[in-house]
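#struct-pred
JK: can someone run the complex with zinc ion? inputs below
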Amino acid sequence: MLQRRRLLQAAALLASGGAAAQPAAYGDEDLRHAALLRDLALRDNAAWRLVEALTTEIGPRPAGSPADARAAAWAQEALRGLGLQQVRAEPFALRIWQRGPAAARLVAPVPQPLVMAALGNSVATPPGGIEAEVAWYPDLAALRADTSDRARGRIVFIDQKTERSRDGRGYGAAVGARFSGPVEAARRGAVALALRSIGTDRDRIAHTGAMAVDLTVPRIPAFAVSVPDADLLARLHGRGQPLRMHVVLEARADVEAVSQNVLAEIPGTDLADEIVLLSAHLDSWDVGQGALDDGAGVAIVCAALGVLQQAAQQTGRRPRRTVRVVLFGNEENGFDGARDYGTRHAAVRHQLVSESDFGAGRVWRMASRVQPAALPLVDAIAAQLAPLGVERAGNDGSPGPDAAVLMRRHKWPAIALGQDGTHYFDVHHTENDTLDKVDPAALTQNVACWAVVAWLAAQAPLPFGPAPL
Ligand code: ZN
Ligand code: ZN
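RT: done, structure tokens with the ligand placed:
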């Protein structure tokens, strides 16, 4: 089948007089259909209805929990409700982390309560908690540079700040403190790790998130304090007084569980064995409703596939390649879903991997990671998105987290639609990640963008891959 197609493609190249000199291009009909999809999406509010239902009827859905299983059942039902027939779940085993009650307070120089949240994968403290002097570091780099004994027997505090940015670079620069801070502190003999929340808000709410586990160092309790609490610690540290902190934290790590990826697709026609993959992640942290992270992404990619299906029914035009939505399980704490998908589908050619996982802001730019010969096609996709306010960015893009795992592991090509994340990290991984933060009009614009990208990736006269890494 594959060989026959290649022969047909070679014959088509010859018939066109040798395509080497001719940049690849879309036909007018495909571009007209893209415009139709865009208009259909802009008249539709399916994405809003989906995120409203997911946050209202399911709520927080940490991987492997009963709510995660309910979310997977809900998602399959919702996808069928969009007229899609090829809907299924692919289960996988994983080890999960479960939060228990936790509290922290400053003991000296001034007793004060601290608003905190344990980090995912943190171990529990002993039942009576841990009390120790604080070893204060301005950022992760300072901790890494410390070759002294200062952290030994202490609670390391990293005062890493997160700068607000449209494209999330401030988060990217800061998140290492959360992810690697506990291991770096444990290596230096610390008894616990605390840090300023990786977030851009000024609210008295702590941001959770995953931390790395390194089996060569002891696992220590780790938690984030709210930004105003971190400010308090910084002021007291500035006064030159030693700080003492107490933390008590319950948690269970490495609990055996099952989660699943949810898949839905529109089968392709002549290139049905190639996959155009749109994705989001179905799991969320246990705090909040997972509205922005990543209920919005779930709603956007499901609605985009729904628009393609609706258009196929109206016009009889189905995509050449199979367009598949995957809602990944456990993005938040280990990428188990992405890794399971990659293993199961490793032998299948992927024309595109992509993910919507940056909240509910409008798409403002499109980056790619495709082979050079496909660049004219990707530029043509960007031109279709220009009326939606989207700029073309470079060919060094990185898609969302799960899709990036797949891109790097399999060299599958990618398109990244960059959303406006100016306010995303105000609520990310907190109790404040709730439905009221979602703007229905911005969701609709996202759906229109993804519908166009999916369609034109499916119709492309060339493979987009392999991705240049
Ligand atoms: Zn996410
Ligand atoms: Zn997240």
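RT: quick notes.
The pocket of zinc ion (ligand 2) is lined by residues 293, 332, 429 (CB under 6 Å).
Residues 10-19 have pLDDT under 50 and may be disordered.
JK: thanks, will look after standup
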